[in-house]
Amino acid sequence: MHQDVDHILLTEEAIAARVQELGAQITHDYAGKTILMCGILKGAVTFYTDLARAIDGPVQFDFMSCSSYGTSASSSGNVTIRKDMDSDPEGADILIVEDIIDTGVTLSCLMPLLKERGARSVRLATLLSKPARRRVDVPVDYNGFEIPDAFVVGYGLDFAGRYRNLPYIGVLKKEVYSK
Ligand code: IMP
Ligand code: MG
Questions:
Q1: CB 3.0–4.6 Å: which of 38, 89, 99, 104 could bond 136 by disulfide?
Q2: What pLDDT score was predicted for residue 56?
Q3: What percent of the chain has pLDDT over 90?
């Protein structure tokens, strides 16, 4: 795995420190409320579990799975829901937890959907954002890191289902995904 990484963009330590900051901010912003954390499978799982433990307040767990990618390194632009939330969104304060906002297509479809279903509030926490690649504007409430336009893996993010268990975030070597 490690030999396919061109360089490390974010170390384990840098990620952990930033996740603690986001958790503290979210704890403060949601004081007195229960957060319904909606993680987007599978890439957000690592961030999700760390962020949940950095929030000092009541949290409920739920997950959705969407697809816009397949195995290629560029977005196809269509979003389908493969697995929906189990909880009733009606009246809930939903915090969507995503690994990365790239083109913005996925979240620009999901956020209005959850609002239509009667959620009291819908906010978005993402570990990473690639502003240079944005095609649709998405309001990001909690952003871990803005990163340059490069394909990254690790800490939950994959290429063709691999590298999710790397503890850091690294830039994948071009020859790996252009094969
Ligand atoms: P968007 O709809 O283009 O914003 O796509 C977001 C999804 O694309 C993320 O949840 C990731 O699954 C995937 N993605 C975008 N950029 C990367 C990357 O650099 N590495 C791994 N997955 C990525
Ligand atoms: Mg994803």
A1: 104
A2: 98
A3: 83
Residue 158 bears catalytic tag: no
Distance (angstroms) between ligand 1 centre and the Cα of 56 equals 28
Q: How many CB atoms lie within 10 A of CB 52?
A: 19
* Cα 157 to Cα 76: distance, rounded to the nearest angstrom: 17
Instruction: Give the mean model confidence (pLDDT) for residues 142-150.
Output: 97
Name the percent of the chain lying above pLDDT 70: 94
Cβ count near 162 (within 10 Å): 13
Q: Which one is catalytic: 102, 137, 141, 158?
A: 102
Closest ligand relative to 161 C-alpha: 1
List CB contacts of 175: < 8 A, sequence separation 6 or more.
none
| Structural domain spans, the chain | 13-148
CATH number for the domain formed by residue range(s) 13-148: 3.40.50.2020
Work out the angle at residue 27's Cα, subtended by the Cα atoms of residues 24 and 41, and round it to the nearest 5 degrees: 90
Q: Which pLDDT band holds residue 19 (cuts at 50, 70, 90)?
A: very high
